[in-house]
Amino acid sequence: MALTISKIAEILGGTVDGDGSAEITGLAKIEEAQSGQLSFIANSKYHKFIETTQASAILVDIDFPKSDRTLIRIRNPYFAFLKMAEQFYVQEPQVATGIHHTAVIGQDCVIGEKCAVGAHVVIGKKCKIGKNTIIHPGVVIGSHVQVGENTIIYANVSIRERCRIGNKVFIHPGAVIGADGFGFAFEDGKYHKLPQMGNVVIEDEVEIGANTTIDRATMGETIIKKGAKIDNLVQIAHNVQVGENTVIAAQTGLSGSIKVGKYVKIGGQAGFVGHIEIGDNALIGAQSGVTKSVPENAFISGYPARPHMTAKREEASLTKLPELLKKIRLLESQLKKICDKLNIEHD
Amino acid sequence: MALTISKIAEILGGTVDGDGSAEITGLAKIEEAQSGQLSFIANSKYHKFIETTQASAILVDIDFPKSDRTLIRIRNPYFAFLKMAEQFYVQEPQVATGIHHTAVIGQDCVIGEKCAVGAHVVIGKKCKIGKNTIIHPGVVIGSHVQVGENTIIYANVSIRERCRIGNKVFIHPGAVIGADGFGFAFEDGKYHKLPQMGNVVIEDEVEIGANTTIDRATMGETIIKKGAKIDNLVQIAHNVQVGENTVIAAQTGLSGSIKVGKYVKIGGQAGFVGHIEIGDNALIGAQSGVTKSVPENAFISGYPARPHMTAKREEASLTKLPELLKKIRLLESQLKKICDKLNIEHD
Amino acid sequence: MALTISKIAEILGGTVDGDGSAEITGLAKIEEAQSGQLSFIANSKYHKFIETTQASAILVDIDFPKSDRTLIRIRNPYFAFLKMAEQFYVQEPQVATGIHHTAVIGQDCVIGEKCAVGAHVVIGKKCKIGKNTIIHPGVVIGSHVQVGENTIIYANVSIRERCRIGNKVFIHPGAVIGADGFGFAFEDGKYHKLPQMGNVVIEDEVEIGANTTIDRATMGETIIKKGAKIDNLVQIAHNVQVGENTVIAAQTGLSGSIKVGKYVKIGGQAGFVGHIEIGDNALIGAQSGVTKSVPENAFISGYPARPHMTAKREEASLTKLPELLKKIRLLESQLKKICDKLNIEHD
Predict the structure, then answer these.
(1) Range of the domain at A294
(2) pLDDT (tens digit, 9 = 90+) per residue, A11-48?
């Protein structure tokens, strides 16, 4: 595939700053791009590479500084680059259309048109798989599971019975959907397992990371709403609700019955106690320990999590604490001298 | 299935507070229950739903406030609800009894009566599987592994050679039992792998969460004792011993050769250095960083982990630190004024 | 197998301190060793067992205290023990040489001599597997993947298309190599998936822990360099580079585009923001939250991560903070008394 720089700018709705006649045949990171490749700058840490990059054209923000490089100026250059990536990058199909002869499909399943079901896949009875969906080798799906259209389920994923997966969902390798929630009642000196009777519902356009685990509800549903993006090795406990377009970075853990709003952003390795609510648009810093509900639009961080500016101020003052201890000792000795001079009793 | 409220109270040994004649046909969470359903309240956060629930009867503690709802008063209502869940909830079998024709079973294996071995299961030679045990599709078991009776091993679990699994154990999807411990000797500028010669022993009634990893011992055994409950994505390193009826929440990590007592409760995302002991009945807060041994009955939290009340007090005083810095500056200027007035030298 | 103590000392290049004539037939931990077994002491926590061990000989450091036990004195006794473990411990082969008849191998693959490809393995087209490599049951490998010689890939591992794995690599069960990086552009009120066009390269002698996830690069390569050792449940994001002989303990998370140097040691559950560099030989404490680049040879810890001695000093002073608050109140009242006496205005 080849497109001139001018043509790319036209497709994207950007403006060329420089010579638009050269042909672009591929895409690359700014620090590795070669002649003939298109790149982008969306993070100021990468501005410096404008000097040294070999890229033939660079997608940049509208107010990017003037340069002797050929720029395509556009709002949201990262998104523009993504649109070009969709054009230039053709992913090789990994699973042939149809049902592989080693796959084991239960009774009364409905497998949609143009589905690709890979080798050694196991699907329980009475499942419904929507059209164009791709199920990679080694996936195990329990009975009565519904999967939508244009969804990709990667290798060795496990989905237990009665879960429902939407359209255009990505589930990355090794993820586990619908395992038993962690619920026990203590009696007679030991823990008794509470049957986990509910399921997991994953709505359209959700992404679930590799080896992430989403437990089924004790009763009712654990829900991941439309457009939510969940990274690798995340733990989502029973009865959690994750709102629309919320993003959760790797290794975060959500305890049971938490309700997370929409457009929330959660950093990596954050942890949350159960039965709390996280308001819409909240930002939760990486490694936060969230011990109570969070209002809409709040930005919290630290352990225990508190407003981010407070946490930063406290961290900054903590660095002064060792010096402060010395200062206090000095104040004390000074005071003692004064008290001695004035014949005031010193405690 | 249908039982009158009075009959349920009789089965459980509770007392009906209200009209016991209505029939219960199902179970639900208090906030979602409909007419004809039984629910429970065991956490004060859910008391408020007593006003609005549509449940026909609610299991509550003996001293729960009077209400115009039909209550079944009983000690440990959560456990009582669990007993009813066992009656009302019938889990649909996912794996047919017998050995699926695609399963690959090694030489000299003994598979007990009424076992269910799913599609594409692989079992190494000389394994012994107890009766009524269910092995879901995609499970891989190495040679010389013993699995007890009435155990359930879910999809895509990997169990390496010579491990031993007890009776009534649950191993959730994707868990890895008996991978090599992380042991290397440094010599000649690189790390050399120490053969991990031991195994993992999981005793009766243990639960192992989805995608949890339990490494085999370097020598001897990594042991999870009877009745311990381990959540998802937990890391248990080589030669760890987890005591009876200990509960470990998700994403916690135990380093090598730790000995955890019985009835210990460990919150999510806690981490432990190696070669320490955690006493019986200890409580370890979520996200704790445990750097030394913990006595019996202790409650510790924070990083580094310290007695919980100390940790809370320090956290509380930390919030006052920015203000304290201002106060100290004020004290200093005040002192200076006094020193000037008294002609005392000020440092 | 049996070797005299003297023979073992000779093989290893150590010196016998005591009677070297007894035969050794096995290896054991110091606290569990029986007569006829060889053990070692490499950590001072285990010195006490010298009194009670039943081991017939113990590998110890050259300057280990005199004892009435039979010692083999040697530099690096742990490495010496490892060399003996390689002699005494014969791991039973788990996968027969050849390609199991249930394995599904894509077109135009080259499988090297003496490879062992287990049951229900799936390999995509145009893959190349080097000689003597062992692929356990349930492994799924995408198209155009290259795997070196003498590598072991354990059960249920998923490796996506175009990744490259070196020689003498261990990939433990459930690991996921080459899943999509977590990259989205926000536009029109939702997140759009950026195609993850790169791959993962794992060089020789690397070890990848169970259920660890290593994401493919957005463009270019995510690289794990020669001799690096990565524990279980570690998250390595897109475009990360891990240097030679670097060791990463369990549950650590590396965000996108981090460059980690060689001989770095990273404790468990540490987290790193993206786009930073970690210098050679750096030490990163367990549970650290690393928010900026780290120079060579630095030792950092805590949240946010700072020089380890600073972090320890701040933690120590924090324990004095509650008491300090009382002391300040006392100073204030004292000052007030003085001001009253001197008729100085008090703020």
Answers:
(1) 157-304
(2) 999 999 999 999 999 999 999 999 999 999 998 889 99
